[in-house]
Design brief:
CATH class of the largest domain: Alpha Beta
Structural class: alpha/beta
Radius of gyration: 28 Å
Bound molecules: NADPH dihydro-nicotinamide-adenine-dinucleotide phosphate
Strand order of the largest sheet: 10-11-12-9-8-13-14
CATH architecture of the largest domain: 3-Layer(aba) Sandwich
CATH superfamily of the largest domain: Aldehyde Dehydrogenase, Chain A, domain 1
Strand content: 15-25%
Number of domains: 3
CATH topology of the largest domain: Aldehyde Dehydrogenase, Chain A, domain 1
Distance between the termini: 83 Å
Oligomer: single chain
Shape: globular
């Protein structure tokens, strides 16, 4: 069920928690985007020439200054997202310096020059290695759901690799991106990190105006456009897109811990997390008890703004609130039951944390990304049905299995067609620079975090140095000895090594002599 979208306020112009206006932030023109790229490009070579240890120290300084000036960013995040400062601290700020430390370690391994082991027999006198070289200027396009940490996963490694960076925040969270760029300016060389503000056309302008590599985090629809534009320009692009994560709850789970974990990963950040638990498949044997406990737990959650401590904030935008309402209405119309929540809070874009029981595979809330504080429960016969339904999805980011039988859980989790499989937890690798964060199907194959993300930040250059005084036996001229030599090489590959070598060595001498004569002696 879908109704036409109403008219919404312009993005980033009002606070999501109480609707108060926010001051406008000017948008960059195409020329300004080009100028920002050029400034970063001018600053980049000196940065790339700085020893890695110095770049790592700068990352620690960046992490430290963000923590030291946290009061400023918490105020901005509170205004732009409506989440309480405590929630912003815990979900976006607290781990900054630790993230930098771990990113430094990953970089040391990812950027190390790699020796290529060459066979002395096949390639005598030659040595080779692979270097990691920065692309130049990396563009980072980020969404609004975690407007600060969505930049970290690419900002730290891109800088560690020796790149300049241009940040493109979502137009609904421009001030967070601007503050981050200002902190970069405090501790990094002048102009190395730039920020360009504006809507989607400004993100696209990064590509048309000459960025050297692009990292995109956002929706599937935009990810396709950005990837296509990058493809046309042969610019490296990594895209991490939406999710519809499932959690499978087995009958033997630790019920209290499982309910707490799943409610957290479903409702955290009002469900506006690419790796939210958006579908729960619970085995029939414990379904009643599980649902009952979820309802009790979700019923205790408090939405900001309110007196005292809030657990979650409102939805970030009016269109997001409208979408969540559409999904819940569709589920109810198709037979699901709202056991708690299911209404607006009445303040800003607030939506009450919601539990839907009796969900089925045909509902939008099970098939499309909801991105809201909605715990949608599907009762299944057994684990096999849960695995089958989990894998029947247009997305594939995280998938988790909750059980006391860890070995069985691991075996089941590894059957999930997702980028990150978990047992008894969910989504936590997003803040681990050591773990690849990746997906399948609509989520996209892009990789963030870990050394596997480095193609977005570096190109590899192979270097081969030949100290062999003799020419290679394949060079001109082609003669009868070349045919005999080639035959002996084939025999060496498929037959007896010793016998072939005895034939090869005299032929090799003849070939080298002929080649030298061909070259003029
Ligand atoms: P969007 O795709 O709408 O926007 C993402 C970013 O792209 C924003 O900065 C946006 O700018 C910009 N943009 C929009 N159009 C273009 C364009 N044509 N060219 C270049 N850039 C463009 O996503 P949302 O902001 O709505 O974010 C929510 C989505 O992000 C969800 O699907 C969520 O699952 C996903 N996500 C995925 C993560 C992952 O790691 N897999 C992590 C976090 C979120 P503007 O906002 O100004 O329009």
């Amino acid at each position: 069920m879908s109704t036409p979208a109403p008219t919404f306020p312009a993005p980033g112009t009002v606070r999501p928690d109480d609707g108060r206006p926010l001051p406008a932030v000017p948008y960059a023109t195409r020329e300004e985007v080009r100028a920002a790229i050029e400034r970063a490009r001018a600053a980049q070579p000196a940065w790339a020439a700085t020893p890695l240890a110095q770049r790592q120290a700068a990352m620690l300084a960046l992490g430290r200054i963000i923590l030291e000036r946290r009061a400023e960013i918490l105020e901005i995040l509170n205004a732009e997202t409506g989440r309480s400062p405590l929630e912003c601290l815990v979900s976006e700020v607290i781990g900054t310096l630790d993230f930098a430390r771990s990113a430094n370690k990953v970089a040391a391994a990812a950027l190390a020059t790699e020796k290529v082991p060459l066979s002395m027999l096949d390639h005598p006198g030659k040595r080779a290695y692979i270097e990691a070289l920065p692309h130049g200027v990396v563009g980072i396009i980020a969404p609004w759901n975690y407007p600060l940490i969505n930049f970290y996963k690419h900002l730290f490694p891109a800088l560690l690799a020796g790149n300049g960076v241009v940040l493109k925040p979502s137009e609904s969270c421009p001030r967070t991106g601007a503050w981050l760029a200002a902190r970069c300016a405090d501790v990094l060389p002048k102009d190395l990190v730039q920020v360009v503000q504006g809507a989607g056309d400004v993100g696209a302008a990064l590509l048309t105006e000459g960025i050297d590599s692009i990292t995109f985090t956002g929706s599937v629809a935009t990810g396709r456009k950005v990837s296509a534009l990058a493809g046309e320009r042969l610019v490296p692009c990594t895209a991490e897109l939406g999710g519809k994560d499932a959690a499978i709850v087995l009958a033997d789970c630790d019920l209290g811990r499982t309910v707490a974990g799943i409610v957290y990963w479903s409702i955290h950040n009002a469900g506006q997390n690419c790796a939210s638990v958006e579908r729960v498949y619970v085995e029939a044997a414990i379904a009643d008890a599980f649902v009952q406990r979820c309802v009790a737990a979700v019923g205790k959650l408090r939405v900001a703004p309110q007196e005292g401590i809030a657990d979650i904030g409102p939805l970030h935008t009016a269109p997001q609130l409208w979408l969540v309402e559409q999904h819940v209405a569709d589920a109810v119309q198709r037979g699901a039951t709202v056991l708690v929540g299911g209404t607006r809070t009445g303040s800003g874009w607030g939506y009450a944390p919601t539990v839907l029981d009796g969900c089925t595979h045909d509902m939008r809330v099970i098939r499309e990304e909801t991105f809201g504080p909605v715990l949608a429960i599907v009762r299944v016969k057994d684990a096999e049905e849960a695995v089958r339904l989990t894998n029947d999805s247009g997305y594939g980011l995280n998938g988790s299995v909750w059980t006391k039988d860890v070995a069985r859980g691991e075996a089941l989790a590894r059957r999930l067609h997702v980028g990150v499989s978990l047992v008894n937890n969910h989504a936590i690798p997003a803040i681990m620079p050591e773990m690849p964060w990746t997906g399948v199907r609509g989520t996209g194959p892009g990789v963030a975090n870990s050394r596997h993300a480095y193609p977005a930040y570096v190109r590899r250059r192979g270097v081969l140095v030949d100290s062999n005084r003799q020419p290679d036996p394949w060079w001109f001229p082609a003669d009868a000895n070349l045919a005999a030599f080639a035959d002996a090489v084939v025999q060496r590959s498929i037959g007896s090594m010793v016998g072939a070598l005895l034939k090869l060595l005299p032929l090799l001498g003849k070939r080298q002599k002929a080649i030298r004569e061909f070259g003029g002696g």
